[in-house]
Write a structure and sequence with these properties.
Blueprint: H1 2-8, E1 16-22, E2 27-35, E3 41-48, H2 53-69, E4 75-82, H3 89-102, E5 109-113, H4 119-129, H5 144-147, H6 149-160, H7 162-165, E6 173-177, H8 181-192, E7 196-202, E8 205-208, H9 215-223, E9 235-237, H10 239-243, E10 249-252, E11 271-273, H11 282-290, E12 294-296, H12 298-301, H13 304-313, H14 318-343, H15 347-364, E13 373-377
Parallel strand pairs: 1-13, 3-4, 3-5, 6-7, 6-10, 10-11, 11-12
Antiparallel strand pairs: 1-2, 2-4, 7-8, 8-9
Helix pairs in contact: 2-15, 3-4, 6-8, 6-13, 6-14, 13-14, 14-15
């Protein structure tokens, strides 16, 4: 299993682990380049005060599997800046620019936006070192958070699950945990397919309405930076309560490990589509599989963002990006769930089998993999 490989390292990576310190601006950050067999690594930069190297390494491996499963000419990486993303914008820019300068020589890594950062952040990085994806449209980019590429892919994945879980999106009751850049767009694209939001949450709490939340009003409320727990169209609930809401589709779209051995028994959905990276522990996924709940793994369901980034890097358009997302996410979800059903194994095992087979093939074409550096970089 993935967790066992990461504990010891394995034949796939990581290739490079770099810790960054710049005391003059109080910058503490980390970069994990997991594998570059398929090409230069693409992976987001996230900002949070409690990031760890272990979390970033797990996310970097998820990016390796995601990129190779989607057939992209890119390896996987992830980086993190240990700071509060809600800090003053000028202070945040100082940190982002210092981080960019620190990774200037890491040309095998192309940064993109992740939790806590956006296209403005990517513009700062590109200004410093000349490489980033998810840039503002005026810079020729395809801004992921504005377009909602990841959320679109999640909606496509949910739609493709219908033959395997008996849930049609028309009238399906949906819960979104993490009503941010991914969750809001996933909700919007799902609503366009006839789904009804019955519960959502952000970092400050949640709201629920068994008869359905007014999504347009909720999106307006969220856009004004109001906590969703205070939305007048629903009843305030806590994060723990959201897990046990009655629904058809449950979408985790926030931090890792929100579904654990302790709460997996409470899930009342028929299908879980992972909008976040590594949102469930291995123990949780075993419990969900035993209960007959279909879980579409993260690196299959939420590949829309990095597919969009790869299309941007190649000079493509938004229309081309969305067409590619639809094609590759739909194809992979079908392949994984067909294999899962045929071999009677959990979807994650089927997804890892698919991705690792492609990764081994990519690695067979050259001597790209090198477990090289682990150290501290002080720019």
């Amino acid at each position: 299993m993935l967790s066992e490989w990461l504990r010891l390292g394995d034949e796939f990576g990581p290739e490079k682990v770099v810790l960054i310190e710049e005391p003059s601006v109080s910058l503490r950050a980390m970069v994990v380049v997991d594998n570059t067999a398929a090409g230069r690594a693409i992976g987001g930069v996230r900002m949070a005060p409690d990031l760890t190297v272990k979390e970033i390494a797990r996310l970097a491996r998820a990016m390796t599997l995601k990129n190779v499963a989607a057939g992209l000419p890119h390896g996987g990486a992830k980086s993190g800046i240990i700071a509060d993303p809600g800090m003053a914008s000028d202070e945040k820019e100082v940190l982002i620019r210092a981080f960019a300068r620190a990774i200037e020589t890491m040309v095998d890594y192309i940064p993109g936006p992740d939790m806590g950062l956006d296209e403005t952040s990517m513009a700062c990085i590109a200004d410093e070192i000349g490489r980033a994806v998810g840039l503002p449209a005026v810079m020729g980019g395809l801004p992921l958070d504005t377009l909602g590429a990841t959320g679109f892919g999640v909606a496509v994945a949910a739609e493709e699950c219908e033959p395997y879980c008996g849930v049609s999106l028309q009238g399906a009751r949906v819960v979104v945990q993490g009503f941010g850049a991914v969750g809001t767009h996933a909700a919007r694209f799902l609503a366009e397919r006839g789904a009804v939001m019955v519960g959502v949450s952000d970092s400050r709490g949640g709201t629920a309405n068994p008869d359905g939340l007014d999504l347009e009003k909720l999106l307006e409320w969220k856009a004004s930076r109001n906590p969703v727990g205070e939305f007048a169209g629903g009843s305030a609930i806590g994060h723990a309560e959201l897990i046990g809401l009655e629904c058809d589709v449950w979408i985790p779209a926030a931090r890792p490990d929100v579904l654990t051995e302790a709460n997996a028994h409470e899930v009342k959905a028929k299908v879980i589509v992972c909008g976040a990276n590594i949102p469930a522990t291995a123990a949780a996924e075993r419990i969900l599989a035993e209960r007959g709940i279909v879980l579409v793994p993260d690196f299959i369901a939420n590949a829309g963002g990095v597919i969009c980034a790869a299309v941007e890097l190649a000079g493509g358009t938004a229309a081309q990006a969305f067409a590619t997302i639809e094609d590759r996410v739909r194809t992979n979800v079908r392949a994984v769930l067909e294999s899962s059903r045929r071999a009677q194994m959990p979807p994650r095992a089927a997804a890892e089998e698919l991705a690792i087979g492609r990764l081994r093939e990519a690695m067979s074409y050259g001597r790209r993999y090198r477990r090289s550096t682990a150290g501290v970089l002080r720019p």
